[in-house]
Structures are given as structure tokens and as C-alpha cells.
Amino acid sequence: MQKCHETAIQKAKQIKAAFFDVDGVLTDGKIYFTDNGTEYKAFHSHDGMGIKMLLRAKIEIAIITARRSELVTRRMAELGVKHVYQGQEDKVQTYELLKQELNLQDQDIAYTGDDLNDLGPIRRCGLGIAVANASPLIIQYADWCTTHHGGSGAVREVCEFILTAQDQLAALCEQYL
Questions:
Q1: Tens place of pLDDT for every residue, the chain, 177 residues?
Q2: How does strand 32-33 pair with strand 39-40?
Q3: How many other C-beta atoms lie within 10 A of the C-beta of residue 155?
Q4: Which has the closest alpha carbon to 95: 55, 126, 130?
Q5: What CA–CA distances, in Å, run from 101 to 14, 55, 112?
Q6: Fewer CB within 10 Å, N side or C side of the chain?
Q7: Is the whole-model pTM more than 0.90?
Q8: Which domains does the chain show, CATH number per domain?
């Protein structure tokens, strides 16, 4: 189900910050444990490149996740993401804190999520985005839905969507030609 693409493009033109959930968005949503209890997650390299491109375009990136994981801390540090909020049961409170800290308005923010605890930020932000395999309720309230599943390039799709709407994608890709 694809929401009105033109409306989403217009909203994407105004984005100054992109906030992302982790489990189900940057990962496939599965939580893996080894026999000794060690947790591991898989992050898609394309998503990492997308985040780096947004940062190069001077678009702030933030992570708001309900779980805590050293793996998230490590991956976000590798990507240069400064705003990482883990253990956030109330994502709306964190969203509002970040909005104030970064001196943003709702219309300046894109939020990408997949499950019920993402509903508040998705409904408040300027561009609410659901990954393709999100809960149907999240898709219903989102402005736009990716074609890729969480953990399978959905974040890269979000990044390129925003950069394309802002006419920045081609310039960012030129260095690789």
C-alpha cells in the first residue's frame, strides 16, 4: 500500500532531521541470542551508507529505541550518529526532547518506525514513515511506506527518498562516479 507519493515528496522537501527506530527498522526485528546469552543484530550496509549520505547533506540523524544494546551504540558510533537514545519506552517524550534540543518544528522531522510504540512520533512529525513490514496500524497512520522491509534496505530507501525530494542525491553520488 503506497500513500500519496506527491504529498510525501512535498513533506520530504522540508526535512532537517530523520529519526529512526532500530528493531524492525534498522534490523529485521528479530532478536538473536547465542547459547551463552550474547545478543546480536544484523545491520544492512546500504542503510549505513544512506545515513552517512543524510549526515553529509547536513540532515540530523537520531535513534530512538525501546531496547538497550551495545551493538546499537557501536554501529551508530561507526556511522557518526550523535543522537542515540536507547531504553526509551516513551518515544514521544524523547521525540519532544530531541525536537527542543535540535531547535526543530514537527514539520522538520521525518520519523521511521514499524510498531505500536512508534505511533506517537509518526503522528506528530512532518513525515511519518513505515517500513514495508510494519504493523498495519503504523502503515495506516504513516505518510509514506517503504517498499523494502526493515533490516533489508528500508532506511536507505528513506534516505534516498528525502535526498531526492531535496535535489541532493545526485550531487552526493557524484563522488562515486
A1: 355 678 999 999 999 999 999 999 999 999 889 999 888 899 999 999 999 999 999 999 999 999 999 999 999 999 999 999 999 999 999 999 999 999 999 999 999 999 999 999 999 999 999 999 999 999 999 999 999 999 999 999 999 999 999 999 999 998 888
A2: antiparallel
A3: 31
A4: 126
A5: 18, 17, 19
A6: C
A7: yes
A8: 5-174 (3.40.50.1000)
